[in-house]
Every structure is written in C-alpha cells, then in structure tokens.
Write a structure and sequence with these properties.
- The protein is of the alpha/beta class.
- The chain has three domains: about 350 residues, Rossmann fold; about 110 residues; about 80 residues.
- It is built from 19 helices and 16 strands.
- β12 and β13 form a beta hairpin.
- α10 packs across α13.
- The longest helix is centred in the C-terminal third of the chain and has 60 residues.
- The protein binds iron/sulfur cluster (SF4) (2 copies).
- One iron/sulfur cluster (SF4) binds next to α9 and α10.
Length: about 700
C-alpha cells in the first residue's frame, strides 16, 4: 500500500521493509575477514585493459617504450560515457595488444602491458581542495579525470551518478555485500570508516541529496560499529542495518528494503529521486578528491577453501590472477575452479593471466564440497522453486523456455531485463539448469539484434539524407541554369547589335534551307529537258515542257514496251508448238482425229469397250492350249488385262471429257504401260516353264 508520507519522512522512521524471494546460502565470509587489508606484492608486469567500465574506452595516450609513472593517465576519455585508465605503477609500456579480458567470455580486449621498474614512483597527487564550493562542475570533471567507476560490480562511471540531472533526495551507500565469501567492503569499512564517510559527504554535496542511508548487512557487526561511530555527528547520514539475505545488495532490492518503494520495470532509481553508490566507490572518491589519487588499486578478496592464506589485498589494477593467487598460496584440488567474483554472480576464470579490473572484488578458489560444480542439466520439472526464489518477481522457468526457443519478444514481454542475474533461481533449481547462463546469452543476443537494428536505421537515415541532399543540389543546379538562361535572354533583349546578329543568322539559315529544297527541282528539270531533246530535236535544250506532254510521252513509252513484250511472247509460243503442229499435219492422224472429232463421246466409248473385249477373246483363244498353270497365269493376265481394259473403258469415259491433246498423251502412256506389263508376264511364263523343266 502506497504511503502518503514523502520519501524522506518514510525512511527517517528507520523502518526496514522486505523484498520478495531471496535465499540464504552459506556465507563463508569468516575465511577472509579476520585480518587487515594487506598490500599485494609488486608484480613484474601489469595488464591494464583500456576499457574497465560501462561505456566507451578512452583514447590511448602512450606508445610502446614510453616510461610511465604510477597514476599517469594512459588513456583520455572519448566522447560519451567514457573514463580514463591510469598506470598502476611506474615502468615502461612494453606492449599494446589484445589480451584476455576480465569477462565471462574472456574475449580479448585492447590492453596496455606495463613492465614495472620496481620503484613504484607516482605522479604528484592532484587533490581538489575546494570541493565544497557550490559550483560542482569542476569537481565532477575532476572525479571523471581520476577514472572513478562504481566498484560494486557494474563499473558505471561515477561522474554521471555523482551529478545526476534529476533532483535527488536520497543517497544510499550500499555496503550490504550480500554475496558469500566476499569481504572486501567489510574490511574496507573496518579499517577506513572515516575516509569512507568523507567520500559520502562529497557525494552528498555533488548529488544534492538531503539524506544518506548507509546500508550494512547485519552479518558485519564490526563494520557497523565503526561506521556508526564515524558518522555519529553527521545529521544527514543514517546507518541502516538490513537482515542478511541474498541478494539484499541488489540495487532495486535494497531500495525496496530501505524505502518500501519498487523501482518500476525499465526505470532507474533516479526516477524515484534516489541514487546509490557502493561503499568502495565512496572511498575512491575521497582518495581522488581529497588525496588527489586516481583509481589505480582496489581491495580484492582472495579466498576459498583452496587458498592457503585467504585475505583482502590492496591490489593494483592490472595485476594478474596468477600473481594474486601465488601471493596467497593455493592448495589446488583436482579440477580446481577459480572464480572471479562470488559463487552466485561470479564467472569461471578461463586463464590465470586474466587481470584484476575496477569491477573485480574477489578471486575465489572454493572446494568442491562447499561450492560443488553444477551437475548435468536435466529437464525442467516445473516445480516453481525458481519463481519463489526470484527477488525480481520474474518467472524464471518461462524465461528459460523462451530463451531456449530464442523468442526475444516473449523474453522482453516477461521482463528479462529486470533480471539482475543474482543466480538465486539456479541455486534452488533441482534440475541443475544453469538458468543465468541462458538469460545472459539471451540478453546478449537481444542487445546485438538491437545494435544491428540501430545500425541499419542509421544507414537508412544516412541514405535518405544523401538522397535529399542530391535532390536539393539538383534543384539548385536547375534553378541556377534557369536564372542564367533568363539573364542571357534579358541581356540579348537589351542589346540591339545582338538582335541584328541573330536576325542575320536566321536569314542565312532560311536562305540555306530554301536553296536546299530547290536543288532537287532543278535536277529534275534538267533530266526532263534531256529526254525532250532525245524525243524531239525541235525542242530547245533548256525549254520548259508542259507536264501534260510529259504524261502523254510516258504513256506512249509504256504502250510500246507492252506491245513489244506481247510480240515476243507470241514468237516464243510459236516456236514451242512447232513440232506438235508438224505431227498433227500427217493425213492418218488428221483422219483419225477428224473421225474421232465427228463421233460422240458415247460412240467412242462403246467402240473402245468392244475393241477391248474382242482383243481379250482373241488372246484367250490363242492361249487355251497352255497348261493349267499357264492357263491360270493367262487367266490372271487376262483378268488383269480385262481389268485394265475395263479401267481403260472407264477411263475412256472420262477421257471423252478431255481435250484431244490430253487424250493422246494418256493413250501413249497407257500403251507403254501395257507393253511393259506384257513383257513382264512373258518373262514370268518363261521362268515358270524353266522351273518345270528342271523338275
Ligand atoms: S527450479 Fe528448475 S526445475 Fe523447477 S521450475 Fe524452475 S527451472 Fe524448472
Ligand atoms: S537470476 Fe534473474 S530470474 Fe533468477 S532469481 Fe535472479 S533475478 Fe530472478
């Protein structure tokens, strides 16, 4: 239920609220918080990644072989969200190259490798003495130049949160340190409480917050005591002791604990007029502003059952995990795990050359008994334990489902980005499902897709802008040409001599055109004239001829030509018909033709049929003495002949309708065919007789 009290009135009551979910894993903090903070040994080489914060990396200021001093800037911030990094010790820049990053992926990042000279000489300190001045811009710039980033894990540039655009009412110092094993903040508070409170006062000044709540988990009684003592005279700093529960140190969870307010999804604490800083960050701000020292080292807990001397060390940024672990000693068990961070939110160290960076708070070498490796992943049994443990009130099993099927829209619908990757769900999962890994992968995929989309959108806008620019230039060019043409036209109108020149040019062009069009007529006249000279000697050579006369002459020529052609055709026809004419002129033929001509077609037909029958009878009588086969053959022949004759008779009927010339030709052809048939029959008979003789 929402209270009517203001934010400050509500928190000043001192009440501690709660948040849903959460777990209570074994704390194991006693391993490393029993001794003061030690100093990490000076290493021979430091690996300083140029990007150790959220945002963009800076621009490298040094080159190979450069001598550097501790605290010297190695990069300068680029535009946007960016911070510099500083040399952790004095020495020489030996290499600038990609090196394994302090990230779960271990993806190589550009790294400056400094070979220490062993002197650890520093650049002069640059304190910001007038930090209480009302104008804070220079102070914020100083904090930025010192490379201060959030030391709680996110490494967000502090200069942004130290001077937010919103009005801030409440500053929360997060000293909860809820993750098991880690004690860096605990020991820092125990041994540097006064300095931390100085840093808090600077933050109160820059943010303009009216109140600071200093939140510490109740499992750090020594720290609570010294911090309370350090701020007992500070009216605007209240210490809040919160119950131990993981993840109380989550930003949204701690705000809910201290104020009862929930930061809405996709919103930030700043939207509730709240800003939160890690206790280590407050200490770093004190060092940067009052002592004038950039961020070159931090407290790192080196702990775990396999570490011989678990402890906290002031560790220079860029120190390798190998160097740190070697200093503390390790009794490695089989398949010893090394984790950067705690057992809940940390990640496996893939290479012992991985460097300590601004966000590194712990190097953990746990035993398998206390932090057992994850077992084989099994299917989700929908027990719902993960949902009960989730402090963000999400549905982890649904997120798992959509993460596996890569349904990005559904993941966003189920508020994937409200997941703080605390690992509480995976911790309680009986199926050993590495839920947080699935969520991290999906977040990376979605961010990549959004980046790609943004790039494509930028490209589209650039393209459209270019098109618009080209169109503008084209229109401007056209306008310039039109204006220039208009100016020329106006100039011509005003210039009389120019007008005369144009008129003269036009006249010349016209004359030339006329001349060209008349030239063919002249040629035609000459041709006609020559013809006239040929046809009539009386006509004068250049005398013009009447068109009618020309037409008459042409018709006459055409007629003459036609007659000539007809005459020629007649002569050719005569010469072709000459032999035929000769044959037609013989008396026998003439008589026959005459007789035939005198008969009717029916008479001719009858006569021919009768002749054919008589012929067949005669033949039959002549061949009646031959043998049966011969008779059969003859009969066949006769039959054929009869048929042939019959066909002849039929044919003669049609022949009666033909011209005499056609009839004659057909008769000749028929006679030739008949003779051939006869000859073949005779040959056949002879062959038959020969065969009979042989038998
Ligand atoms: S805890 Fe594991 S098994 Fe149970 S519902 Fe969640 S994901 Fe499934
Ligand atoms: S890791 Fe995410 S989903 Fe799992 S419990 Fe934590 S906030 Fe909830």
């Amino acid at each position: 239920m929402q209270s009517d009290l203001t934010l400050l009135e509500q928190v000043k009551s001192g009440k501690i609220w709660g948040f849903p979910g959460g777990i209570h894993p074994p704390e194991r903090k006693h391993l490393s918080n029993q001794t003061p903070i030690a100093q990490a040994n000076l290493a021979t080489h430091y690996y300083v990644p140029v990007k150790q914060h959220s945002g963009k990396e800076g621009e490298v200021l040094v080159k190979l072989g450069d001598k550097v001093l501790k605290g010297q800037p190695l990069t300068k911030p680029s535009t946007g969200l960016s911070l510099p990094v500083h040399a952790p010790t004095s020495g020489e820049v030996k290499e600038i190259k990609p090196h394994i990053s302090a990230h779960a992926s271990g993806a190589p990042e550009l790294t400056l490798i400094i070979e220490a000279d062993g002197k650890d000489d520093s650049v002069p300190a640059q304190p910001f003495n007038d930090w209480q001045a009302p104008e804070t811009d220079a102070l914020i710039e100083h904090i930025k130049s010192m490379g201060i980033a959030g030391l709680g894990g996110a490494a967000f540039p502090t200069y942004i949160k130290a001077h937010p655009a919103h009005d801030i009412e409440l500053l929360i110092i997060n000293a909860v340190e809820c993750e098991p094993y880690i004690t860096a903040d605990d020991v820092l508070m125990r041994y540097h409480a006064e300095e931390i409170i100085e840093g808090v006062e600077i933050l109160l000044h820059t943010t303009g917050a009216k109140l600071c709540l200093f939140a510490i988990e109740d499992n750090k009684p020594e720290a609570i005591e010294v911090i309370k003592k350090a701020c007992e005279h500070k009216n605007n700093i209240d210490v809040r002791v919160v119950p131990t529960k993981y993840p109380s140190g989550g930003e949204k969870q701690l705000i809910q604990l201290l104020t009862s307010q929930q930061v809405p999804s996709k919103k930030l604490p700043i939207d509730l007029s709240i800003v939160m800083q890690n206790v280590g960050t407050a200490f770093a701000i004190k060092k940067a502003v009052i002592d004038g020292l950039p961020l070159t080292e931090r407290v790192v807990t080196v702990t775990g059952e396999s570490i011989t001397n678990p402890q906290n060390l002031w560790t220079k940024l860029g120190t390798t995990v190998e160097d740190l672990v070697a200093q503390c000693g390790i009794t490695a068990e089989k398949d010893q795990r090394l984790i950067m961070g705690g057992p809940m939110m940390g990640f496996n160290i893939l290479d012992s050359q991985m460097p300590v960076v601004k966000a590194t708070n712990c190097i953990l070498a746990p035993s398998k008994y206390h932090v057992p490796p994850r077992g084989v992943e099994q299917a989700c049994i929908r027990c719902g334990d993960c949902a009960a443990a989730c402090p963000a009130e999400l549905l982890p099993q649904q997120l798992l489902w959509y993460s596996k099927s890569q349904e990005h829209e559904k993941l966003e619908e189920y508020d994937l980005f409200d997941c703080i990757e605390c690992g509480a769900c995976a911790y309680v999962c009986p199926s050993q499902i590495p839920l947080v890994q699935y969520y991290r992968n999906s977040k990376a995929e979605i961010r990549q897709a959004e980046e790609d989309k943004a790039k494509a959108e930028k490209a589209r806008i650039r393209f459209e802008q270019r098109q618009a620019r080209l169109e503008r230039e084209k229109q401007a060019r056209l306008k310039r040409h039109q204006e220039a043409a208009e100016r020329r036209r106006q100039a011509l109108n005003q210039d009389d001599s120019a007008k005369d020149k144009i008129a003269a040019a036009l006249a010349r062009a016209k004359a030339k055109k006329q001349q060209q069009s008349e030239a063919p007529k002249e040629t035609g006249k000459l041709e006609d004239t020559s013809t006239a000279v040929d046809n009539s000697t009386d006509a004068a050579p250049n005398q013009a001829i009447d068109p009618k006369d020309k037409v008459a002459a042409a018709i006459a020529r055409a007629k003459a030509k036609k007659e000539q052609k007809a005459k020629q055709a007649l002569e050719n026809s005569k010469s072709e018909q000459a032999p035929y004419a000769e044959s037609k002129s013989s008396p026998t033929h003439e008589a026959q033709e005459q007789a035939t001509d005198e008969k009717t077609p029916e008479q001719i037909k009858k006569e021919r049929v009768a002749a054919a029958i008589a012929k067949a009878k005669a033949k039959k009588a002549k061949e009646s003495s031959n043998e049966n086969e011969q008779a059969a053959a003859d009969k066949s022949t006769m039959t054929e002949e009869s048929i042939t004759d019959k066909q002849d008779v039929d044919a003669s009927e049609s022949q009666a309708l033909k011209t005499p010339e056609q009839i004659k030709k057909e008769k000749v052809a028929a006679a030739i065919a008949k003779a051939k048939a006869k000859k073949q029959q005779a040959k056949h008979n002879a062959d038959t007789l020969t065969e009979q003789g042989n038998e």
